[in-house]
Amino acid sequence: MPATTTGLRIAIVGGGIGGLAAGAFLRRAGLTATVYEQAPALTEVGAGLVAAPNVVRLLRRLGVMEAFLRRAMPLEWGWEFRRWADGSVLSAEKLTGVCERLYGEQTYTVHRADLLDTLRAAVPGEWLRLNARCTAVEARPDGVELYFADGSRVEADVVIGADGVHSVVRGAVAEPAPPEYSGICAFRTVVPAHAAPDFARRPAQTLWIGPGRHFVHYPIAGGQAINVVAFAPAGDFTNESWSTTATIEEFHAEFADWDARVTGLIAAGGVPGRWALLDRAPLRHWSRGRITLLGDAAHPMFPFFAQGAAQSIEDAAVVARCLTAYSNDPEQALKQYESARIDRTTRLQQVSHARRDTNHLPDGPEQQVRDAALAGSDPLVRNGWIYGYDAEEAPTS
């Protein structure tokens, strides 16, 4: 791969949201990189995600907001909690006006594929290498060598592993540790807006919470579809793949005694995806020499705070800052990047993990205390440490 104007040959393994964001921020910083993606085309599995102010301000600085807003949906209401049995509202948080006043940006929902397309437009086409499945990464005294499934090899000065929860690059920086069984699985489906009831088409992120389960929905794709994701006991299901499917009947059976609006949304959707949530302890380090990790490869987290994609984009902004500041010392750059990010992402991993138990309380005294606390809470203010964070102003040393 060619050297950059600073002499750095930067390889990004993984062409998902985090990998493309890294490419976009490196380009903005005046560096160049090559993005290696194993798939024959850049596609994003899954459906919707929430883009809170901490990531929206970064997208604005990349200059991609016009493209982003073509398909993103501004949320009027967020964290609208409802009771599982009858849909009674436990708490509802108005976002419009308040979010901008507190954090300078709105909160949006967006299809993952639309966000991927937005970021791809900020990365030069000649930087992308498709059908490039990385099989190993090996540190050398003066750089890093990447090995690919087709037998080819590439030398780089810096390697950024943005290759997800099943990261190959992680094996070069951290000791192998098998994930633990969480006992939870996720179902995901998309409902066409014309088939969805009025309450689901509202610009709101709605969470129905109940014993052992919770159910989330919000509009995506410019309001043309409703994203549905739900969490339930996994039984003996342990497949951690977004390409695995279930049947509508299996999905429905998990929520059969819930409010009819929930089961109606399940019935209106297509074949649901299903994957197990496997538990991984936070890494103590995710950089070694000239190799580092980003996004889910570094800090996979349960999706209960809707921050997975946002954290990968924050990572991208910070790693670009550090490689710019320490362009003559890439090992120091990656140390600074890890130091700047690891406490924040570890905290998010921990609070996301804890949300599982809070959302899934059985009916009874603890559930009643939780519901009373929800009624008096202000998550938008309480979580200011998440939404008010600016990845481009946070200290890196």
Per-chain topology:
Elements (H helix, E strand, L loop, with lengths): L9 E4 L3 H12 L4 E4 L11 E4 L1 H10 L2 H5 L3 E2 L2 E7 L5 E6 L3 H6 L4 E4 H9 L7 E2 L4 E7 L2 E6 L4 E4 L1 E4 L18 E13 L5 H4 L2 E7 L2 E8 L4 E9 L14 H7 L5 H9 L4 E7 L7 E2 L2 E3 L14 H18 L4 H30 L5 H11 L3 H4 L1 H4 L10
Parallel strand pairs: 1-2, 1-12, 2-8, 5-14, 12-19
Antiparallel strand pairs: 3-7, 4-7, 5-6, 9-10, 10-11, 13-16, 13-17, 14-15, 15-16, 18-19
Helix pairs in contact: 1-5, 1-9, 9-10
Description of the molecule:
It is a single chain. The chain has 397 residues and is of the alpha/beta class. It has 2 domains: 1-40 and 130-177 and 281-355, FAD/NAD(P)-binding domain (3-Layer(bba) Sandwich), CATH 3.50.50.60; 46-113 and 178-279 and 361-392, D-Amino Acid Oxidase, Chain A, domain 2 (2-Layer Sandwich), CATH 3.30.9.30. It contains 13 helices and 19 strands. Strands 6-5-14-15-16-13-17 form a 7-stranded mixed sheet, with helices on both faces. β18 (287-288) and β19 form a beta hairpin. α1 packs parallel to α5 and α1 runs parallel beside α9 (308-325). The radius of gyration is 21 Å and the shape is globular.
